[in-house]
Amino acid sequence: MTGNHGLLSGKVSLITGSSSGIGAAAARVFAREGAAVVLTARREDRLAALTKELRDQGADAEYLVADVARADDMRRLVEFTVERFGRLDAAFNNAGYGVGRTPLHLLDDALYDQIMDTNVRGLFNCLRPEIAAMLACGGGAIVNTSSVGGLVATPVSAPYIASKHAVLGLTKAAAAEYGAQGIRVNAIAPGTTRSELVEEWYAQNPGIEAEVHRTTPQPRTADPEEVAEAAAWLCSDRSSYVTGATLAVDGGFTAL
After folding, report:
1. Which residues, in sequence order, are CB contacts of 120 under 8 Å at separation 6+?
2. Residues 175-180: contacts with CB within 8 Å, 24+ apart?
3. Do residues 58 and 1 lie in contact, with contact meaning Cβ atoms separated by under 8 Å?
4. Which of 139, 192, 193, 218 could disulfide-link 222, Cβ–Cβ 3.0 to 4.6 Å?
5. Regarding the domain delimited by 12-255, which CATH topology (the fold level of the hierarchy) does it fall under?
6. Residues 201-245: pLDDT tens digits?
7. For residues 134 and 91, what is the distance between their CA atoms, to the nearest angstrom?
């Protein structure tokens, strides 16, 4: 799977939220492009299976069960990566949470806290040890997963919209602070992308898939691999003068 001329050849990377969806696709894309990969999520069975798959295809892969909402878990993850591979070159902070379509005035504290703890504090928990490790080894590249919901607003999803806007704020702040020290920080803003949750949403709401496609210039749902490819490019040296940016991977949705 790996090669000497891949987009990420020789780089050590970690990917959060890598047990399914975009994160699992990124694990395969990063490994195919030559990176050593450290995978993390909360579902060990899926992490173990994916790690074995990658190793069987020739990749250098490890995993560690961790929760981005726990700062100690993220410190332990970065320490594990550096102990195993000697450094950290690239991080794809992809873990996120979004559920329900509840009017703002009916939202309860628990749902708001759960979304913000994962999407915002979780990213904060990732960035601190990642940046420290990259400073120690001369730089690196970080990509954070936001959403088209970080660029525009949609009804009945206020906490999610707020959290994904916050992801972009943290991305820009980190890029501004650490650019001179060799660390690039960018974000991707995926549109609707096939995943377990999206397939369930489509199944529970007949007609919604066609509606999504009608509002997208490329009238289809993205494959996770398409989003993962964008993250790989932003983690690579091919994007060496790109930092503080948000790359919409949305089929043109936010162009309308």
Report:
1. 163, 166, 167, 170
2. 175/243, 175/244, 176/244, 178/131, 178/134, 178/135, 179/243, 179/244
3. yes
4. 193
5. Rossmann fold (3.40.50)
6. 899 999 999 999 999 999 999 999 999 999 999 999 999 999 999
7. 10
> Given this model, what pLDDT does residue 2 score?
47
Assess contact for 61 and 29: CB atoms under 8 A. Answer: no
Mean pLDDT of the chain: 96
Instruction: Please state, in angstroms and as integers, the Cα–Cα distance from residue 106 to each residue in 24, 110, 162, 180, 189, following that order.
Output: 34, 12, 16, 45, 27
Q: Say how far residue 226 (Cα) sits from the centre of its chain.
A: 13
Low-confidence residues of the chain: pLDDT under 70: 1-4
- Please give the pLDDT value at position 99: 75
245: tokens are 């940016």
Q: How far is CA 209 from CA 206, 212, 214, in A?
A: 7, 5, 9
- The CA-CA-CA angle for residues 101, 104, 107, to 5°, reads 75
Q: Is 160 a catalytic residue?
A: yes
